Amino acid sequence: MAKRQPMNDLARRERQIMDVVHQQGEATVGEVLAQIADPPSYSAVRTMIRHLEAKGLLKHRQDGKRYVYRATQSREAASRSALRKLMDVFFAGSASDAMAAILDVSAEKLEQADLDRMAALIQQARAEGK
Q1: What is the Cα–Cα distance from 111 to 91, expressed in whole angstroms?
Q2: Is 118 found in the same domain as 83?
Q3: pTM, whole model, 2 decimals?
Q4: What digits encode the pLDDT tens for the residues 35-85?
């Protein structure tokens, strides 16, 4: 089995395909093609899906003459993996530096509910000794 490539190393079209598969749970090439804005050709999507499978991000089952693809990890697991890599690359692994950057770039968009949730998550982490 191929080693799983991190989601954040994907090209734009590959991320679009993975988004469709995560949203649908599983999908055929035709179903993916129908969900992509300004889609490439059927054969281009099929080739990209085969590449994603070779990278260990998708697997398939056969349903009659067609292949049905599904992700090898949940969107949440892929998001955590991408976030860990982003933190390592841009913030030297520092969660507080990453949080400060998030707050800096999204300050005008944050609502009180967002801040309350962040405060609750910090409090939970403290209680769990993290």
Answers
A1: 25
A2: yes
A3: 0.65
A4: 998 999 999 999 999 999 999 999 999 999 999 999 999 888 888 888 888
